[in-house]
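Support request from a user on the community tier.

User writes: "When I paste my structure tokens into the form, the page sometimes reloads and wipes my input. The last time it worked, I copied everything first. Here is what I submitted, just in case something in the input itself triggers the reload:"
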């Protein structure tokens, strides 16, 4: 379905980004992956994409919390792939604390990566997409782009910002073949959430699995984690022809989190 398309997925050495890269590649897209981690493990994932799906896969390293590096990364990715058709702005981090205790350095880091990198990545990718009259920008926001939670000021502010930026990107490009939408996942059991589960287990003196259940009971009525593969499927849909008139909107995969 996406054969001949070229996709860039930020923060795709782990979790949701990696699963989206695999699902886009499984549908025929060549991909650029990015993110931190052990060089040998990253090379294994990159080679696995080429081997499993018979596409081209490149790894391009960049610290996307830096504006210039993010823009340079997109241009390097376009050069490696030949063009950019699909940009998935996925890289993100988390920190939890009350507002008055929230370290300024953590606030700055979350806003830089979870929000500003989406702006810089989009700004650098749009000229490539507009030139060819086709593009799909898929922003990985969160249920926290739609509702708040205590102790997550920077994350909730950044993700609400991503939802707003998604709307503006859509409006500025309506009718020119470029769409922009946000996916809003609920709890997904990736390293980012595993840290929060461990913290709850530690602070309450309970087993890790009991802490995982507590997170679900508090927020996610389905009481099941969203899977990374399901999010990959959502990204494939947004890149498909069926989603051509879908732009500026949010797609929730949150087990009912934001329904109440
Ligand atoms: P993860 O920690 O598994 O993956 C994050 C990725 O971002 C990794 O590849 C990491 O190397 C990369 N990264 C971190 N800092 C970076 C930087 N400065 N520059 C470039 N890459 C960097 O996390 P995840 O759960 O897969 O999260 C992916 C996205 O999904 C994030 O935007 C997150 O906010 C969002 N999200 C996650 C959940 C969840 O429950 N896990 C829910 C909603 C939204």
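"...and here is what came back when it finally went through:"
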């Amino acid at each position: 379905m996406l054969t001949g398309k070229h996709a860039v997925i930020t923060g795709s050495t782990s979790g949701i980004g990696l699963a989206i890269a695999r699902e886009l590649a499984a549908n025929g897209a060549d991909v650029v992956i990015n993110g931190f981690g052990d060089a040998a493990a990253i090379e294994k994932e990159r080679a696995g994409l080429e081997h499993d799906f018979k596409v081209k896969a490149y790894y391009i390293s960049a610290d996307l919390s830096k504006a210039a590096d993010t823009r340079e990364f997109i241009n390097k990715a376009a050069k490696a792939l030949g063009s950019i058709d699909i940009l998935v702005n996925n890289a993100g981090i988390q920190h939890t604390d009350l507002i008055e205790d929230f370290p300024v350095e953590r606030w700055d880091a979350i806003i830089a990566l979870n929000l500003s990198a989406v702006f810089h990545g989009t700004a650098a990718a749009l000229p490539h997409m507009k030139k060819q009259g086709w593009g799909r920008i898929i922003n990985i926001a969160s249920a926290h782009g739609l509702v708040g939670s205590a102790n997550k000021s920077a994350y909730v502010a950044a993700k609400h910002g991503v939802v707003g930026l998604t709307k503006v990107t859509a409006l500025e490009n309506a009718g020119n073949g470029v769409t922009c939408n946000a996916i809003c996942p609920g709890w997904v059991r990736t390293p980012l959430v595993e840290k929060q589960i461990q913290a709850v287990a530690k602070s309450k003196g309970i087993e890790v699995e009991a802490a995982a259940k507590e997170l679900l009971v508090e927020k996610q009525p389905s009481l099941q984690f969203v899977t990374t593969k399901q999010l990959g499927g959502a990204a494939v849909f947004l890149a498909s022809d069926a989603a051509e008139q879908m732009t500026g909107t949010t797609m929730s995969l949150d087990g009912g989190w934001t329904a109440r």
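Agent notes: The reload is a front-end session timeout and is unrelated to the input. The chain has a mean pLDDT of 98. The pocket of nicotinamide-adenine-dinucleotide is lined by residues 11-17, 34-37, 63-65, 90-93, 113-114, 140, 142, 185, 187-188, 190-193 (CB under 6 Å). Escalated to web team.
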